[in-house]
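Example 5.3 — aldehyde oxygenase (deformylating)
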Amino acid sequence: MIEYETVAEAEASLGRALTWAETKWFEYSAAMPDYWLYCHTTTIIVFVVYTLAPLPLLLLETFTPAFVLPYKLQPKVLLPPTVSLRCFAEAAFFFIFAVPLQIIFHPSVAKVYQMMGTRMGLPLPSVNEWGYEKIHRVHHEFTAPTGFAMSYSHWAENLALSVPALVGPSIVPCHITTHWLWFTFRLIEGINIHSGYHFPIGPGKLIPFYGGAEYHDYHHFVGGSSQSNFAPLFTYCDYLYKTDKGYRFHKARQAKMAKLARNMEKGD
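Solution (predicted structure tokens):
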């Protein structure tokens, strides 16, 4: 809730006139409880972005115009609209489930950790395949992902991935609009790496070490046996831990086959 009761009081405190956007924000949020503003991130921003951002990809997948086929990473796999609708229905259920959690955990990280029972001592968690078989396998149903598959995951995985996304805005003071922009960016980034298309231009090209859709698509393409490409954004982590060897071998083989095909065409 804004600490000023009137626009005049706000302008007097700031020592200047409010901008148009500031005035509109005052009108919208002056008497609104903090809980309600905070929950916009799930109830409005997250749901709207997740619903609208993948729609262009759905249209591409449905109508498959010829000019985009050269950019599709797995051109032989065309998913029907019902698949995206199934992903959306599963994710929508999680969004509804997350609303009360947003309210309960508002917004102290320390309290979130305490309420979730997060521990820091021993014993360490055992290393086995239980997590993949029981949880992450749901997300890997799609060996050729599409935009709506971004949040098509086991509810526990969606919940676990939501916690680190909330940590930054919870421990760093910021305006609620910055909070919304952060979640918008995270959603669009996740949708992009699951899009199934690798276009020659895009905002991701401006981000250092960004692997994008092509990089993460290989992680899905390999499926359950994947030990590669875990970090589509910070790809240097895969390089440091040598978990991109399979992908680099795959790319080298593709380049070799493309070169062989060009040589054969020249021979003809």
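Remark. Residues 118-128 have pLDDT under 50 and may be disordered.
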